[in-house]
Specification:
Number of strands of chain B: 9
CATH class of the largest domain in chain A: Alpha Beta
Order of helices and strands of chain A: EHEHEHEHEHEHEHEEHEEHEEHEHEH
CATH superfamily of the largest domain in chain A: Thiamin diphosphate (ThDP)-binding fold, Pyr/PP domains
Oligomer: heterodimer
CATH architecture of the largest domain in chain A: 3-Layer(aba) Sandwich
Radius of gyration of chain B: 17 Å
Structural class of chain A: alpha/beta
Distance between the termini of chain A: 46 Å
CATH architecture of chain B: 3-Layer(aba) Sandwich
Order of helices and strands of chain B: HEHEHEHHEEEHHEHEHHE
CATH class of chain B: Alpha Beta
Number of domains of chain A: 2
Number of helices of chain B: 10
Strand order of the largest sheet of chain A: 3-2-4-5-7-6-13
Strand order of the largest sheet of chain B: 2-1-3-4-8-7-9
Helix content of chain B: 25-40%
Number of domains of chain B: 1
CATH topology of chain B: Rossmann fold
Number of strands of chain A: 15
Largest interface: A-B, 39 and 36 residues
Chain lengths: 355, 244
């Protein structure tokens, strides 16, 4: 297969079109403007729709409309913009609408910075809007993976009728890397008989709705949604293990920091410290069970969680490890990317305490 | 036996929950009759708001999408752009459209989105129990304006049809009311014209309905209709506001 050089954001946009996305709605924000720019140039070629919306709020609601009527739709933004989309994401979960939201994360809070960060982990994995809900959150660590995950994102969204978040950091959006366009086998998905696309041929109208004014019916609806979250946890959990067979020091990292951790682990091995990397690919569902198994292995002595945040995934790592082994944290924030030597030193210090 | 009147096929059998004297039921009926007469019930996609007409999908016979508060024009944009040959309309109240959704309606009109908006202006928040709306008249009492709205405290009420008519994407705006049969017939004609212009891809079409809310106004049905004609129509003039 032919290797091509692509910029992350443009590759994500192209992958979405190849995955059957036919409606894109978005609002400009750095560092992901290449996604709407690419869509504005290419969507018409495939008979799709592009609208530059007046706001992030409008963009997510346009996605809501297109998804309601059965169209594969997406939006993309960066951290402050994704905050504005939370209303729409909550409504989409409530109304059981599939769509893909790409967040190319930058520094926060507030306007923060425009450099890569991972401060939106809580927002993505805990349901950033109102109500009790979950969205599958996919975290690519390179552009090839970002592209591959876009196909999965649309399929997962359609399978469960639930929005899916692709959580990339600014580096994934902005750098260029080689990739190959792999053949993607679509999932066997049910038809969208629920869509409000005109009732021709149906005895009843379809009503896309998230209001259940009577409390017991709202509870029943939430229980139905919870069954879907349980199925997502069962079926969609993904992670990668690198140099983990004999690892004593285990880095836990996702996205760009996982690559830094990988280099740090290779360097540590040269110094005689057996280091490995556990990389969650789905942040929700978090690979809790597997990380717990690893924590229970006698060979594993300590964990080092590396993030471009103050320590958000750290909560899930601590839940998984549950004090079976020490968990150390190393993070840089505000758009600062940790360098290999810092990460290496954090691991070395952690190792000194347990060896 | 001759049938001289029957419920429109554009409505389902569900019993309406609206208060006595509320204009929603009448406007629902008019929209339903227009869909039926144009033969588009099976193609139309409605977008309903947050407010008293939040359950419109249980009443209209066409496919319906319930939008977040104020966002109906954005939702309708997503639907109409991907279904350009089908009729799409939003049905919104004054809190939904003129307050929390002001940005969405302005930009839909600006872009000339080819759907129709039915704007129910009764000058009050009905569902939440009678709070002041952007269209509440000066001096009119509301639960959040207990001494009557003042210009100093809340500004003057917004004339939405006139405001949107300044935008080139809007091709037709008419203000109507449903207080009596002649006005009701005019309202239906206006809705039909808006749907026809939409289907001819002319641009954004907007029907503002001066509506009665006897419950939250603390009036009888008769008093409420009289208030619409004497007070609302004096500030919000009836008739075609813009036609291109």
């Amino acid at each position: 297969m032919k290797r091509e050089i692509w910029k992350g954001s443009e590759a994500i946009a192209e992958a979405a079109i190849r995955a059957g996305c036919r409606a894109f709605f978005g609002y400009p924000i750095t560092p992901q403007n290449e996604i709407p720019e690419y869509m504005s140039a290419k969507m018409a070629d495939v008979g799709g729709v592009f609208v530059q919306s007046e706001s992030e709020v409008a963009a997510i609601n346009m996605v809501y409309g297109a998804a309601s009527s059965g169209i594969r739709a997406m939006t993309s933004s960066s951290s402050p913009g994704v905050s504005l989309k939370q209303e729409g994401i909550s409504y989409m979960v409530g109304s059981e609408l599939p769509a893909v939201i790409v967040n190319v994360m930058r520094g926060g809070p507030g306007l923060g910075s425009i450099q890569p960060a991972q401060g939106d982990y809580y927002q993505a994995t805990r349901g950033g809007g109102n109500g009790d809900y979950r969205t599958v959150t996919l975290a690519p660590a390179n552009i090839q993976e970002a592209v591959d995950l876009m196909f999965d994102a649309f399929d997962i969204a359609d399978q469960y009728r639930n929005p899916v978040m692709v959580l990339a950091d600014g580096l994934i959006g902005q750098m260029m890397e080689p990739l190959v366009w792999k053949e993607h086998t679509p999932r066997n998905l049910p038809g969208k008989t629920w869509a409000a696309s005109g009732r021709e041929g149906r005895e009843h109208n379809n009503f896309i709705n998230s209001l259940f004014i009577d409390a017991p019916s709202c509870e029943a609806h939430n229980n139905h949604l919870a069954e879907k979250y349980a199925a997502m946890e069962e079926n969609e959990c993904r992670w990668e293990e690198l140099m983990m067979d004999d690892a004593e020091v285990v880095f836990v990292a996702y996205g760009t920091p996982s690559r830094i951790a990988q280099t740090a682990a290779e360097n540590l091995r040269k110094k005689g410290i057996k280091a490995g990397v556990f990389r969650p690919i789905t942040l929700w569902p978090f690979p809790m069970k597997r990380l717990r198994e690893i924590a229970e292995q006698a060979s594993v002595k300590t964990f080092v969680d590396v993030e471009m945040s103050m320590g958000q995934m750290l909560d899930d790592v601590n839940l998984a490890v549950s004090e079976r082994k020490p968990v150390k944290f190393y993070g840089r924030i505000g758009g600062v990317i940790p360098n290999v030597s810092e990460v290496e030193k954090a691991a070395q210090d952690a190792y000194e305490e347990v060896k | 036996m001759t049938t001289i009147y029957q419920k429109s096929k554009g409505l389902q059998e569900t019993e309406l929950h609206y208060c006595p004297g509320c204009s929603h039921g009448i406007v629902h009926k008019l929209v339903a009759e227009v869909m039926e007469e144009m033969g588009v019930i099976n193609q139309t996609i409605a977008v309903c708001p947050v407010g008293c007409s939040v359950f419109a999908g249980k009443y209209f016979a066409c496919d319906t999408v319930e939008a977040a508060h104020g966002r109906a024009p954005a939702v309708a944009t997503g639907i109409k752009r991907t279904h350009p040959t089908q009729p799409v309309f939003t049905y919104q109240g004054d809190g939904d459209l003129a307050s929390i959704g002001a940005a969405e309606i302005v930009h839909a009109a600006m872009r000339g989105e080819k759907f129709t908006t039915i704007f129910i202006n009764n000058g009050i928040y009905g569902m939440t129990g009678g709070q002041m709306a952007p269209t509440t008249l000066i001096g009119q009492k509301a639960t959040t304006a207990p001494f009557g709205r003042t210009k100093e405290q809340a500004g003057e009420p917004v004339q939405v049809a006139e405001m949107l008519s300044t935008l080139k994407g809007l091709v037709y705006a008419e203000r109507v009311c449903v207080t009596d049969v002649p006005h009701l017939n005019k309202a239906k004609k206006a809705i039909r014209k808006a749907f026809e212009k939409q289907m001819a891809n002319e641009g954004f079409t907007f029907i503002e309905v001066l509506a009665a809310c006897p419950t939250n106004w603390g009036m009888t049905t008769e008093e409420a209709n009289k208030w619409v004609m004497e007070n609302m129509a004096a500030y919000y003039p009836l008739g075609v506001i813009k036609e291109v």
